[in-house]
Design goal:
Layout: H1 3-6, H2 18-26, H3 35-48, H4 53-66, H5 72-75, H6 80-87, H7 96-116, H8 119-124, E1 132-133, H9 147-158, H10 166-175, E2 179-180
Parallel strand pairs: 1-2
Helix pairs in contact: 3-4, 3-7, 3-10, 9-10
Length: about 190
Amino acid sequence: MNNIQNEKQRCGWCLSSELYKNYHDQEWGTPVYDDATLFEFLLLETFQAGLSWITILNKRENFRTAFDQFDYKKIAQYNDDKILDLLQDAGIIRNKLKVYSAVTNAQNFIKIQEEFGSFSKYIWELTDGKPLMNNPKTLKDVPATTPLSDKISKDLKKRGFKFVGSTVMYAFMQATGIVNDHVENCWKKS
């Protein structure tokens, strides 16, 4: 058997690189209940707004280093000097509004934890703690937004979060397994 026959069937969006395939196989669509990991994806998805996800994945480790291992408690305390350092860091997306939003979002993330006990509880109670299982046959069947992503976006914006439009929130839901959008023939479809 050659490699083509041994290749797993995957969602078509991830076929352009090994990094993408590994992300798809190991993370995308896998339910995340840990607040630290949820914040990591929230931060990365907000920086992804208007860009491709592969751009963010390629810079993920740079983001990890620049943003103190995605420690939202530290990020919530960033001062202007730290923000200026981040804006000079060529390893991340140096968008001033997005860098400032990372700090604001970390502060608001902590407020949600205080209100609900955890961000995980806040986000997962919207689906009764279980992933929403979509059944897209092809990538064309995967929506960019849903009524639930609209609802989450609206609520987070009301709470002061930035760069959390409905499309960003739907991508966040997919990344963290709140919704399962693996296509019908993908090996990860459960």
